[in-house]
# Entry
Amino acid sequence: MPNTTHVHAGPPAPGFAADIESATNFVMHLTEALHTSRRLRAALDVFSARSGASVVHVYRLCLNSGRRQTIATLDTDRGWLSRPLIREIGPALVPENLRYVQAGTLWTLAELHPPHCDTLEASCRLWMENRGFRDAGVIVLGHSGNAVDVLEFYSAVEIAGRLRRECETLAAFGAVAWGRRPAGRVAHWLRATPQITPRAGQAPVEAPLSAANPWKLTAAEMRICALVREGCDPADIVTRTGNSIATVRTHLRNIYAKGQITGQVALVRMLMADTAPATGESSRQSAHAL
# Structure
């Protein structure tokens, strides 16, 4: 990846009327979602259309614990639900001290020095390769106490030139709208969105692949879970294990039943979060919970 320096988003460059128009449209939908009962879906759709991003993910990152909570996620290619977003890359892209990052700032993966790119987890790099993404962007929307709200997006093309300028305009305008949100609005979304982290007051539960083996998985099922956590789909697992596709699917069905989860999307999120749901509690897919 090219060796370039960070470029922070500033005021929109003059003369880009189309950029201003698209940013205004984005802000209009974002403001409606922030101040009414309208969902974020429309705003993320506009951002996706203007930035060319196939996946747009908004989350809150706790600066003290590193805990990440999904606010909303949009994936325009529903055919890729078997390979969902499994780990946010924002903390690896932006500077370590997020507490002082200015709202409306944009970073992209392509602009980082190679050593920074090496900090991305192997599963993230594999996921991006499988999806055909060449670049990713991270926008700091705003701060709330010891937490920072982040918009993360993935693109099949490098975010550079005119596209980068448009994304910077979207970032600057979006951060202004986000900063004017009513108190408690994000907290309301977080309560309404299924999370892969334990709720407040819920007793901690052992991770599925921990030594305690809370789901009582067999050795074969444990191996398949490990491969799923690496980003493998059933076809990849067949290649890695030498089992038939029917055997792999049988193992996956058994895993879903033992973990009381709905499918591979929920399983991947559970494995990447290293948490398991309490007995009797079903895990719901949150890839499209807007």
In short: DSSP finds eleven helices and five strands in the chain. The longest strand covers residues 53-62.
